[in-house]
Amino acid sequence: MTEKTKLIAPRLPRGFEDRTPGEIAAVGAMIDKIKAVYERYGFDPVETPLLEYTETLGKFLPDTDRPNAGVFSLQDDDEQWMSLRYDLTAPLARYFAANFETLPKPFRSYRQGYVFRNEKPGPGRFRQFMQFDADTVGAAGPEADAEMCMMMADVMDALGLAGKYVVKVNNRKVLDGVLEAAGAVGAEQKLAALRAIDKFDKFGAEGVSLLLGAGRKDESGDFTKGAGLNQSGIDTVWGYLDAAQHYDLDGGKRTADNRSTVLGWRDILGSSQIGTDGVAELLTIADSIEVSGYADRIQITPEVVRGLEYYTGPVFEIELTFKVQNEKGQDVVFGSVGGGGRYDGLVSRFRREPVPATGFSIGVSRLANALKLTGNLGASEPTGPVVVLVMDKDQMAGYQAMVSELRKAGIRAEMFLGNTKNFGKQVAYADKRNSPIVIIEGSQERADGKVQVKDLIAGKQAAEGITDNAEWKAARPGQFEINRQDLVAEVQKLLSEQ
């Protein structure tokens, strides 16, 4: 390489991240626990490719002149546009439609994998991230939605988050009925009202009332235009938020059970047919939750507003209730780690007959962060291999034989393949690999039919009480001699003790 050769900076594109062995192992263990719950409920795995034809992705279809709006797209050699999947739900809809004749109905599946968003990245907002979904396609009743919520509660319990979460449930039909009763007209006014309801936990009664009306000015002086409802409409929405004393006005504490909340909404909705239909579905969900023993973990609440356009009925979110500090050092509730709902229209893009569906998506990275904060992730580095050190370069075959014996016994092992001139650097390498054991065979040990076994874990523990370097070298903590022929048995024994 000449002096003028320009080196390439080892940088990642914005919105992407590398993962370490420890992170991979910890997330893998978390995913295994989620899978176990999903499979206990009768769901089976399905895997779809990273790329789909762009038209498959529905509302994320790019326009002709700008094929990368929202998704990462490329053109095939037959001039067909393909895109990296934006979520795991649209590919499922395509899969179900393509295999409609052979799949059981209802079809219960789970899927795990990376999804991609061609959007501006920011703190906690990535262009590539992992989702873990479960969906039931072909079941129209609210019982399927209730089961989805119960499964999510069981997932949280399995991950050690019992008492630290709530599964919140609402219904888009009820929300539409409330807007109808409040006199909201037009898509813009309805969307502004829904956004105001969505801010209930953040801004409380006064803030929501302002956002439902003329608007709200925050502490910085920025003004957010409101929905423009009249006072009667604002009172209707506030009655919905406060139905059956669902919250007290001082602290936002829940004071009503699920059924009482829904019955309170029924009185507010009046003659709205869509709202009445939503109430009937929620009453069925409330009863299923109650008889199954989940009422303490699953709550029907007014502020759940799912933003995706294809939700058609019940919607739900998992909210973690413990507090963390934000970038300003303020205590805030951790918030949502997953959500979903009923999307009865999505599969019908591929088939003429209506196909009901309901599902849930977990944000794997965000959930892993939550488990890390609560001490439930197990994010320590995975145990490395047993490392056979190389003391004599002309004896490589013998060292390789040791490694092969250990591997055949099912023990993770490797021979040191770096610069073998420095013994200390070989041990340091094993330390860095998080190795539990190193094997040492010099010329004297070979002549005597022996090998030295160094227990790095015990050595680290013993060394904590030794302050003098000479003393440490003399003690050789964690190191002992064995017969060469007993290598596999002794390593197995030591690993089991560790």
Automatic annotation (TrEMBL):
One of its GO terms (biological process) is histidyl-tRNA aminoacylation. Its EC number is 6.1.1.21. Gene3D superfamilies: Anticodon-binding domain, Bira Bifunctional Protein, Domain 2. Keywords: Aminoacyl-tRNA synthetase, ATP-binding, Cytoplasm, Ligase, Nucleotide-binding, Protein biosynthesis. L-histidine binds at D87, L88, T89, R117, Q131, D135, R306, Y310, Y311. Its main location: cytoplasm. It catalyses: tRNA(His) + L-histidine + ATP = L-histidyl-tRNA(His) + AMP + diphosphate + H(+). Residues 39-382 form the Aminoacyl-transfer RNA synthetases class-II family profile domain. Homodimer. NCBIfam families: hisS. Belongs to the class-II aminoacyl-tRNA synthetase family. This is Histidine--tRNA ligase.
